[in-house]
Design brief:
The protein is an alpha+beta fold. It has one domain (8-126). The chain is built from 2 helices and 5 strands; from the N terminus they run βαββββα. The protein has helices spanning 16-28, 107-126; strands spanning 8-15, 35-38, 43-48, 62-68, 91-95. Helix 1 crosses helix 2 (107-126). The longest helix has 20 residues, at 107-126. Residues 66-97 are annotated as: Disordered.
Length: 128
């Protein structure tokens, strides 16, 4: 059985460079939930549990409530066999629901990974 796309979620949005670093960190450690990228590839969005936006305050990121709608066919796939439609217009999946470890990324673990990613980027930039 394929995992379902979350029916309600919040979305943590970060610059693409930091987000890609965080995805790598999460894949190596705790696992990553579904992740979106915008069409311009400027930002990544991590699906997190509903209610996360109420207390999210990490500088350089934003967290917003995303949607409350059914995923196609009530699950991660539609009748054409393609991954569920992304919950935000103008985005596509970087990590689709069927390739993710769970329906959402744990916000505490995500915050740690984003912090580590920011420190890594800062260190690399200082070495240039």
């Amino acid at each position: 059985m394929l995992p379902e796309a979350p029916r309600t979620c919040d979305l943590v949005t970060v610059p693409a460079r930091q987000g890609l670093e965080a995805v790598d960190i999460l894949r190596l450690r705790a696992g990553v939930g579904p992740v979106l990228h915008d069409d311009a590839c400027d930002t990544l969005g991590f699906l997190v549990p509903p209610g996360t936006a109420d207390g999210w305050d990490l500088p350089g990121s934003a967290c917003t409530q995303t949607y409350e709608r059914e995923a196609p066919d009530g699950g991660a796939r539609n009748t054409g066999g393609a991954p569920a439609e992304p919950p935000v217009t103008g985005t596509d999946w970087l990590v689709s629901p069927d390739g993710a470890c769970g329906a959402a990324t744990d916000p505490v673990v995500l915050r740690e990974a984003l912090g580590e990613a920011a420190r890594t980027i800062e260190a690399v930039d200082r070495c240039r």
